[in-house]
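Researcher: Structure prediction, please.
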Amino acid sequence: MNRDLYDQFADLAADMDGTDLHGLRQRVDRRSRRLRNRRAMATSAAVAVVAVLAGGLTVLQLRDQAAPVPVLGTSASPSLPPSPLPSSEAPSPATSASQVGMPPDALPGVLSYLTLQPGKPIVLHRYVDGTPQTTSFGTANDHDVYASPSPDGTRVVANTSPDPGSIVPGDLVVVAAGGARRILAHNVQFAGGSTAVWTPDGTAVIADGKRYDAATAATTSVGALPYLVFSPSGTLRAYGSPSVQDSIEITKADGSSPRTVSVAGLSECTAHAGCPTSVQSVSDDGRYLALGDVNSDPRHVYTTTLVYDTVTKQRVSLGQLSHAWFRADGAVVISGNQAKLYDKDWHLLRTYPLPAAETGDTRLHYRP
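Model: Predicted structure follows.
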C-alpha cells in the first residue's frame, strides 16, 4: 500500500466518533503488510520463471550448436538406409555353373575321343557334361585295327588282325583300364561294317554275327548286323539290311517288329559308291537315321553324310556335317569345329565349341 492511501485511511479514522482508533490503526498496518508480502512473492515467482526460461533457451542454443538439425531435401540431409525387403522379396544370389555341377558352355552328355595308333598309348578322353576325364588302356600293338569304348568308359573292345593291311580276321579283345587284355574270340571278321559294338548296358559285345558276353565270353548267334547301332534309350536298333539292297532295317532291341526303310532315292546313291547305308545313329522313335556313305573297299565308315526322315522320305536340312547322334530330347550334330544341340523339332538350341579336333587316329563318339 502506498503512503497516500495510508494517510487517507488515517484521516478517515480521525473523523469517526466512538471508534477505537488504536485498534483500527493496527488492522490497517496488518493489511498493509499482507499486501506488501503478496507483491514481493509475485515478483520473486516472476523472476524465477524468467530465469528458468532463460536457462532453457541457453540449453537449446548449446544443443543447436552441437548438432544442427538437418533439413530434409537439402544437401545437409543424411542418407537414409533402405528399408530391408521381406524374405520373400529379398534378391537371391545368382547360381553359378559350379553350383549346379556343370561347367559353363558344356555340351550335355558324354563326348569321347579314342586314340588308337600302333606303338602309342590307347587313350580315351571323355567330356562328361563338359567335365574332362582321361583313361589309358596301355599301349596299342601293331595288330590293333578298330576300337570302341564301353558305355561307362572303363573298357575298350578292339578288333585285331595279323595283317591289318589286308583286313584279315583276328582276335576280339576287351582291354581294361591300365592295359590288361582278355581275348573273347579268335578269327573274328571286322570288315564291311561288322566291327564290334557294345550293347547299351555294357555287358556284351556284338561282332561278326554273334553276341559275346563281356565277362564270360559266352556267345549267342544274332545273324549279320552290319553297321549296327542302338537308339539312345536302347529300345531300338538299326543296321544296313543284309537282304534288301539300299535299305535299312529298324527293329526293337530284341529283333522283333522289323521295319525296312529304303534309301534308294537319295542322290548319294549315284554320286558315290552306293546308297548311304552305313548307319551311325537312330532316334528312339525310329523316325530319324544318321547315315554315312559306303566305301568301295571294306574299310569301316565312322562319319555321317546326312540325317534321313523315314516318315517324309526326305533328308533333314542341316548343312555340312560330319557326325550326328540322337538324344531322347533331340540330337547332337558335329559341323566343323562345333557341336550343335537340336530339339526334337530340329530347332537349334545352342552351339558349343569342340574341345579338340578329330584326327585320323582319333575317333569321336557321343552318348546322351
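Model: Helices lie at 3-15, 21-66, 268-271.
Researcher: Thanks, that helps.
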